[in-house]
Automatic annotation (TrEMBL):
TerD domain span: 1-178
Pfam family, one: TerD
Coiled coil: none
InterPro entries linked to this entry: Stress/Tellurium_Resist, TerD
Transmembrane segments: none
Domain of life: Bacteria
Name the UniProt record assigns to this protein: Tellurium resistance protein TerZ
Length: 192
């Protein structure tokens, strides 16, 4: 059963029957709002949103990053499946897979961000979401709708944190500005 998260809400990633999750995927999906063209006709547009995963240690230092220019963490525990330049199609447009058991012990938080590389703001995006899925069962664990269109072109979506012997996910949903994750680091640090 999936939990629909609100900003700031936290959910444990322990399995319902006991035990902890070992492999999860964070999916990002979106559609571009059709622009009004000549004579009121709708015209499709392409918007290149990018999902990134930033790995932080207990001191809040960036230990590694996974994004469209580095599809795999140094240790291989986090992998991006590739860059979607348009958002076309159903379901997840970009996916980041995480092997939680192999995330280095010094990494305490994984922060997921999304930004418009092409610079369009979120008022031109609809049906945007991020979701966390148990990779072993294919079951959606949590979903966070990235609603609230606005003049921002980036968002700090969610973080997955070590929580005792397991992990928990917190929906952040903080708006930001920046075309790559590097521009978002000041906004991300406020949520560590």
């Amino acid at each position: 059963m999936s939990v629909s998260l609100q900003k700031g809400q936290k959910v444990s990633l322990a399995k319902p029957g006991g035990g902890t999750l070992t492999r999860v995927k964070m999916g990002l999906g979106w559609d571009a709002v059709a622009k009004k063209g000549l004579f009121g006709r709708s015209k499709a547009q392409s918007i290149d949103l990018d999902a990134s995963c930033l790995l932080f240690d207990a001191s809040g230092n960036l230990a590694d990053q996974v994004w469209f220019r580095q599809l795999r963490s140094k240790d291989g525990s986090v992998q991006h499946t590739g860059d979607n330049l348009t958002g076309e199609g159903e379901g997840d447009d970009e996916v980041i897979n995480v092997d939680l058991q192999n995330v280095p012990a010094n990494v305490t938080q994984l922060v997921f961000t999304v930004n418009s590389f092409t610079g369009q703001d979120f008022s031109q995006i609809e049906n945007a979401f991020c979701r966390l899925v148990d990779e072993t069962t294919g079951q959606e664990i949590a979903r966070y709708d990235l609603s609230g269109a606005g003049q921002h072109n980036a968002q700090v979506m969610a973080k997955v944190s070590r929580d005792g012997g397991g992990w928990s996910m917190t929906a952040i949903g903080a708006t930001a500005t920046g075309r790559t994750f590097q521009h978002l680091l000041p906004a991300v640090s406020a949520h560590l």
